[in-house]
Amino acid sequence: MKYADKIFFNGRIHTMDKDYRVVEALAIKEDSILKVGSSGEILKLKGDRTNVYDLKGKAIIPGIIDTHAHIFWAGVSELYEKLFVPRSIEELLSYVDKKAREIPKGEWIHLKNIYPTRLKEYRYPTIEELDRVSPNHPVFIDGAYAGRVNSYALKHIGLEREASIGKIIDKVRKSIVSRKFDLKDHKEGIKNIQRKYNAFGITSIIDGSSSDIGIKAINELYYEDQLDIRLSFTHVTENKENTVENIKRLESFIKIPKKWGRLDFLKITLDGGILTGTSYMRNPYIDNIDIFEIDEGFKGLINYDTVSIEKFIDIAYKKGYQMTAHCIGDGALDILLKSYSNYQQTNDIRGRRFSIIHGDFTDDSALIAIKKLGLSLLFQPAWHFKDAYILKKVLDEETFQNFLPYKKYIDFNIAAAAGSDHMVKYDSLLSQNPYNPFWGMYNMITAKTMDGHIIGEEYSVDRDEALKFYTSKASYVTFDEDVKGSLEAGKLADFSVLSKDYFTCPLEEIPNITSVHTIVGGRTVYSSCN
Fold this sequence. Notes:
- By secondary structure, this protein is of the alpha/beta class.
- It folds into 3 domains: 6-62 and 492-527, Urease, subunit C, domain 1, CATH 2.30.40.10; 83-175, Roll (Diaminopimelate Epimerase, Chain A, domain 1); 256-477, TIM Barrel, CATH 3.20.20.
- 33% of the residues lie in helices and 19% in strands.
- The chain has an 8-stranded parallel beta sheet. Strands 3-2-7-19-20-21 form a 6-stranded mixed beta sheet, with no helix packed on it. A 4-stranded mixed beta sheet has the order 5-4-1-6.
- Helix 10 (306-319) links the parallel strand 14 and strand 15 (322-327).
- The radius of gyration is 23 Å and the shape is globular.
């Protein structure tokens, strides 16, 4: 008889298999599940060296898979100091004022990942407001695709305030000298953030923008037995001329087993961001409250046409990678789907699981095309949770009606999976963006936003479906449905013991769920007792 290394019994184990079985116990052998079943039958697998854990009625779910996070950015974001993320213009100006009194004149004050939709006043501070608190320091309020600078910054980069925001941001980024993080920094940062992820039962992520030094750090952590999360890497490209060379370079750095880390995705950035009014929309932003300060008729930013996109698709297809794109607006989605459809005429992509990252606005025609092409949609409930209320005011009714329609993903039977787009800060809820998956599930079930509004309730889903978006459906995205995403014999032993049973606790308690113990590959990587 093959005896188990570990046995967990006397619990409620939600396998999330095709039959949604709930069993009492599971057994682990090495890094995989040996068997699931009743406590009686699993305890028969106990040998002299088997470690046995009495769950005392606690629930277990499969390891959470976050299908879009930026672990390398997030890891170092608070390595040396807490990152300030303001909730209001008053807080922002107070911070800038304090910073200006602490640092030498002429040094940049750079606030990263700040979006007007996340500020109480629903706008950026004016140049005059920034000038008042920082007359002798250049200030950059950075929203990635848009932002705000003060007069000193404009003078510093040699531009007038009438210059295009794109030109201003480009010159600002070239002017700011950012802290350089070495290999040691990245290792420490990854250890910090993976522990935070493990505390919520996250056991795998798809990294949205993988770097050479980040992968090197992952290699070292693995061989030092300190890697506690599985990764799928992504190469972000801008120029098709050097894409193949860069893919080969990135691939050459990966020195760990594929079940712990591999390069899967080739990604382009197709449009801007909805939180700054730069995602590319079919209909112009209405923005009657002037949150984005955009001209009438503005539809957002688009970086590539269909011909250019098809060339990137061709590289991914021929080199064996999964094509994907940052694509938020419905106008950008139309272009991306047309590119995929055009390419499908000569090469069958339906089994390749190419994908769309974000895809926030999907009407019925888009969902039909996604299904027909065999694409995966990687969405982030955090944006509904934090931003639905204000976005409803800056988009026309027809457009907003298609904002993150969770239930339609199921009705149209598309391959959709959830993630966070976590970029900076360690706090699970204050981060840009929040990575707490239980808040994400709560939002999908209730359609409730952070400020208590219920928006799009007709698209809410049940608890089973919400969890599937983070487990079995998430594993499908990377061709891993046979090794993770559910708790079945032969699959990897990735799971978490929960503080409360997600399926039976009162609905309002779901956001407070954490992991008591998180297991990856049969090894306990997190325990709330430690």
